[in-house]
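It is worth pausing here to work through a concrete case rather than discussing structure prediction in the abstract. The textbook approach is simple: state the sequence, then state the predicted structure, then interpret. We follow exactly that order.
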Amino acid sequence: MWNAIAIVLGLFFTLAGVMHFANPSFFDAIVPPWLWPSERFWTYASGVAELVVGPLILVPRTCRVGALGAIVLLIAVYPANLYMTWDWRDHSVGQQFLSWARLPFQFVFIWAAWMVARSQPSGYARS
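Step two, the predicted structure:
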């Protein structure tokens, strides 16, 4: 079961990382504008981080460190989800619903990454 979760997480992070470069303006819009140096910097930085942790999760030897990195990343980007919810307060009801739904869903991802990380003792390598 954890293997399926690891594959889904790894693919999700990898695809999300690609999307940060394919459609950066969407991600720029949810970065709090007071962060220095710019929204685009944080869009690309988080995209790179996702492109690192996604493949790490997919490789059995690095799965644990990738999952732990994903947890750190998910916590680090949570303020962007909070900002998006606040910023979209005057958007359509559907968009507002999506922005609110992202908030608890982030914790589901953190839980899933934790399950993957703890399923493999440190130093353990599957063949």
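Step three, interpretation. Residues 2-75+108-118 form one domain. The two ends are 17 Å apart (CA to CA).
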